[in-house]
């Protein structure tokens, strides 16, 4: 069985748990394939945790869930060295971060100190405690969820940390018909265990490598560059996209193309992942709460010609 | 929160200040000294406030500034309500607004007022240089307006270029409106007081008047001739006739009841010419000796001098015909005789005695008497611009003591002596000569060409011109005042006209340029009617309306087209060229490609709209996709694309068939 078919089978399986959410599921898978981390931003009860669990299950990854609270300390995530009287030395007890898929629930409930400990681990793929480095497992994938920051008792992630997440997606309310099914079925959480395991972790790594080989032509690179330039040249943006954002966009477009069975990227791939990759990296000039990224992206697509000129 | 949007960049502030300075510069000449100072102060304050070194002035300071400048305006302009007051008020308002720019809106207000101040420049001057300056400053003000809306980091060059781009399309429109827009009489008229008193002839003549005038090289008027140009000694430009003498000065009598309008019998050819007279603030006009008749709008006094019904406050041009040889008023009535021999009962006894002696010696022969007088001048008199002061009986002093004088001294002495022996005589003032400008073919007459001469009445011949200056300084009449002054030993006179040859030619060229500007740009309204009638073959309302609308809408249509047309890039790659051509043509018949649609995606959509060609379209979509995104470089495929695109274009349905 081809690797790509297995990935698509996994996606099919996932959509049985999260009904009518094919698009966010595909984006989440793309993010995983692109070796990035995913931020899901939505209200409580929209299926964020379900998505994370189901994704871990079908890809055969170990998963750990950490519920972030305001009194949490970095050691609660990373782990701690404890003195062992029997051995007369400190021994490192790894924290929940030592897992393949970490679900960091409500990351904006905790203090910036703890947030940045996690985000550093995400960036480096390793943690250092007492001068010792500990390698995190591979693949290492973080799905963080966050309540919209306008709610009380939250510490919104600053722009520099938002940038660490490859994608930010929202799930949104289900369509009426699907919600009726959902109500009849009495929830879907219990179905997760019945899902088949479609991928082995090694295969996932293999798929990740395959994605990197997807061809991006000069025409396409030009298009991506024009998109980036547009965000820098126009007054409606408070600040434009960074080169890292551009690389992220191209990486995601490659994975999206691979999932859709292409060995080259077409502009539609870029457009499909654009909102998830770009919306949290730009800010409208007149927008304080950083909520307007989607609106900007719509205009961005309308105004930048695929063929140039 | 809205700070982000409305913050003005530093560059914009600099532009703004520059614009304010430049629009006020032409007004410096007449503005009271404190207005520029106020502007400098507020400019500095604006800069300091923008840099954050000063805070915005408090309400109290602003109030004080307003009160102080209002008082200043009242003190400087008093009760006048002329345009100077209004423009000064505008400038003061602009200066004060500079210290309270909180928002973008306030900055815009300053810029709009700057536009207006720039426009008022033309109230005070309409020379070509001012027009050029205004155009340049307009670019700067528009740049300032642009800069307000720009983000940081736009270079000065870019801003200026943009501003020129905006002005560019206005130029054809301006030319068109200039050519055809009807010149309306102003709804209100403003009288502008010239900042410095204009030099010109006055209606009385005392010794020193003309020589004072001759110290100015200001332009008096310009003349173009229809035919042959009269010789220098025939170029006598009459302005005023002085017929009364009160012992000190000659003047025009107010009661002309006894005088008939003088009769002119032409004995030679007619010379047609057009005069463009500079503003004099006086009603009288100049005319070549002698005008045939007065055109409409002017009146002719009995002594055949022309004048307007009101003072001449702006440049004025008029056409006249002159007779160079004539007989004027061959018969005088008793009353007229009396009028022209009037003298005070006493005064200048030596001159009277001398005249009587010569008249007796000539045995009453008028010609011989005049000959004698002219010879006398020729012997020992000096023609000079600096004759010194004459006290008491000025004519006696001049004839017997100083023997130095300018034309008015000779004219006054001559007519005095003529009258004292009972020969009717009068003084004429005006201009004599002028400098020929070869570049535009016109005569330019300056104030130093001002002249005074005598007209003497002789039985049978009527009034005859008698110029005593010709006797004492014939070169003054034969060539021109300019060349006379140049050769004169008088250092003052020489300095007035001292120019090397190339400077002289430069000056002539410059004057020729100004003449063209005045005639074709400023005075175009006089030509407009003829020109339009010529072009349109009539001046009906519908013709004018059509003429106004057709080019106007053509210009607007062109502008709209250039703005709206899809900018298709120049494509060198033949494959792309074929595809873009197809895209343009098929896009016009079916749905055009959206910017975010890739070409392949659009072709697939097109296949839905144009099912007849579905196979070709999908094949083309696939080929384009391979070439553009999948990294295929096959020449065969490229040829296939060109072929397919060509076939599709030939298959395109006509609009009517759909």
Automatic annotation (TrEMBL), chain A:
CDD domains: AAA (cd00009). Gene3D superfamilies: Magnesium chelatase subunit I, C-Terminal domain, P-loop containing nucleotide triphosphate hydrolases. One of its GO terms (molecular function) is ATP binding. InterPro entries: ATPase_AAA-3 (IPR011703), CbbQ/NirQ/NorQ/GpvN (IPR050764), ChlI/MoxR_AAA_lid (IPR041628), P-loop_NTPase (IPR027417). It comes from the Bacteria. Residues 230-293 form the ChlI/MoxR AAA lid domain. Residues 37-167 form the ATPase AAA-3 domain. Keywords: ATP-binding, Nucleotide-binding. The keyword Cell membrane does not apply. PANTHER family: METHANOL DEHYDROGENASE REGULATOR, MOXR FAMILY PROTEIN. Belongs to the MoxR family. This is MoxR-like ATPase. It comes from Marinobacterium stanieri. The lineage of its organism: Bacteria, Pseudomonadati, Pseudomonadota, Gammaproteobacteria, Oceanospirillales.
Automatic annotation (TrEMBL), chain B:
SMART domains: TGc. The keyword Nucleotide-binding does not apply. Gene3D superfamilies: 3.10.620.30. Keywords: Membrane, Transmembrane, Transmembrane helix. It comes from the Bacteria. Residues 399-470 form the Transglutaminase-like domain. Pfam families: TgpA_N (PF11992), Transglut_core (PF01841). The chain crosses the membrane at residues 7-25, 61-79, 107-124, 130-148, 164-181, 541-561. InterPro entries: Bact_TGase-like (IPR052901), Papain-like_cys_pep_sf (IPR038765), TgpA_N (IPR021878), Transglutaminase-like (IPR002931). SUPFAM superfamilies: Cysteine proteinases. The keyword Transmembrane applies. PANTHER family: PROTEIN-GLUTAMINE GAMMA-GLUTAMYLTRANSFERASE. This is Transglutaminase-like superfamily protein. It comes from Marinobacterium stanieri.
